[in-house]
């Protein structure tokens, strides 16, 4: 990974030189390409200065990292910095285990963060609680080579165009025109956001813990029923329907021609396609007649945990400054496909003379997608026990895909079970007012 050591060291100098040396830990939940990039970033930080030393520890997954961090906090042996994913935001905000990053670093120009990345991790009052880090959003990928073989010369941008293209692919003998896994993040959260639909009342929980799920009454229900019908017609496949057994792998091998996936999957797809296929990447598709709104930020952010010495906090601040640097973000984007999180990165890419290389393909489209017009229902999700709800949603909708119940029944069941989780969470934090 290319790192600008001098630029990074200069950014650190003011805060680090006078600080006492500290050894700090940063726990993260990524594996694969992202983990390699994180470890490279940590090594670069240690090489860029000598005032602090960071040890970056992988926990295997976001969920495991979250569980371990809370347990470690209770045992008072927790790290200074912890990477938490989007779904755990409210749980962590109310845990009393972290300091709002704006309080730790009051002089940072936090309004430089792209709106779509900042809003998700803000309090209801607008204070940023965590520093957005490995930001992803939902994008639309096509195998242009396979589409053109089937006579589809224009990349689809709407669901209507996708299904028309899928029909041509099927007619030409293609067994898997479009593939998905039906994941909650893709088919509920990101679909609702860009179509301007609420997932729950109280603006997805930002206005209070007494929110209730409403997705079963929105256009989401029609879309999911469409996926069921299109699958029956052979136009859409689930990952489990494919030879690869995984929707991303099925696209990367050329088995499937179109998919919606995280920007974080881009680098692996490019590598798999090299010398075999041409790929397009664009914003996730809309239904015709619906105004496009912002997609949610995915991935994770970095929190500063309470209970550490001044020297350790200084080390944490220095590392957060380091990863915020535009050139550092450029390196991370080119290595992983994750989207830059500050507005000045696109300017830095333009000045670098590398505005159009494939390695930055997700940067412009991802930022553009997250910066689309926002409504109070597309700010983010602020719902308790949301990690557990994602699993509930998957359990119920997968039953519908399997023909065990209708999709509407699945959504109604998911709403009922989800509301039960919300009421438990509300009771747990009875009397707490969201900030």
UniProtKB/TrEMBL annotation:
* Record InterPro entries: Bact_solute-bd_prot1, SBP
Q: Which UniProt keywords apply?
A: Periplasm, Signal, Transport
Q: Subcellular localization, per the record? A: Periplasm
| Entry's Gene Ontology cellular component terms | periplasmic space
* Keyword Transport on entry: yes
* UniProt signal peptide: 1-21
Q: Which residues cross the membrane?
A: none
The annotated subunit structure for this chain is: The complex is composed of two ATP-binding proteins (UgpC), two transmembrane proteins (UgpA and UgpE) and a solute-binding protein (UgpB).
Concerning its family, UniProt says: Belongs to the bacterial solute-binding protein 1 family.
Q: What does this protein do?
A: Part of the ABC transporter complex UgpBAEC involved in sn-glycerol-3-phosphate (G3P) import. Binds G3P.
Q: What is this protein called?
A: sn-glycerol-3-phosphate-binding periplasmic protein UgpB
* Organism of this sequence: Rhizobium vallis
